[in-house]
UniProtKB/TrEMBL annotation:
Name the record gives this protein: Membrane magnesium transporter
One Gene Ontology term, aspect cellular component: endomembrane system
Keyword tags: Membrane, Transmembrane, Transmembrane helix
InterPro entries in UniProt: MMgT (IPR018937)
Domain of life: Eukaryota
Localization of this protein: Endomembrane system
Source species: Dacryopinax primogenitus (strain DJM 731) (Brown rot fungus)
Family: Belongs to the membrane magnesium transporter (TC 1.A.67) family.
Transmembrane regions: 42-66
A Pfam family matched in the record: MMgT
Membrane topology value: Multi-pass membrane protein
Length: 109
């Protein structure tokens, strides 16, 4: 991750958060005015909804720019820093019931 992409991502995130907060405040203010005027409650204005959607899109791009680079997701990449003993321990094949016939219980007289 380069520092310029991280800086751009942080700026985009800050702008989108402020835009979302502004759209929420505008929506609340519009709702308060409608309640004070005894108007029926309607959807927020188109510009408020557009601001919220644009803030969401800008937030998505900011998060993509600010995130670190993706790591490889392959078996070869995983085995590059592990040993075969760590990966091939096979605890699922351990036999723990092999002494059953010597334990006292049902079926013995």
């Amino acid at each position: 991750m380069s520092s310029s992409n991280a800086a751009i991502g942080q700026i985009l995130l800050a702008v989108s958060i402020f835009g979302l907060l502004h759209s929420a405040f505008s929506s609340y203010e519009q709702l308060s005015k409608m309640k004070a005027a005894s108007d029926p409650v309607q959807l927020p204005a188109i510009d408020v909804m557009a601001e919220a959607v644009i803030s969401l899109v800008v937030f998505t791009f900011g998060a993509a720019f600010w995130s670190p680079e993706l790591k490889p997701n392959t078996w070869a990449a995983e085995m590059a820093h592990r040993t075969i003993d760590q990966m091939n321990s096979r605890p699922g094949f351990a036999r723990i019931g092999h002494r059953g016939r010597f334990l006292p219980g049902k079926g013995k007289s």
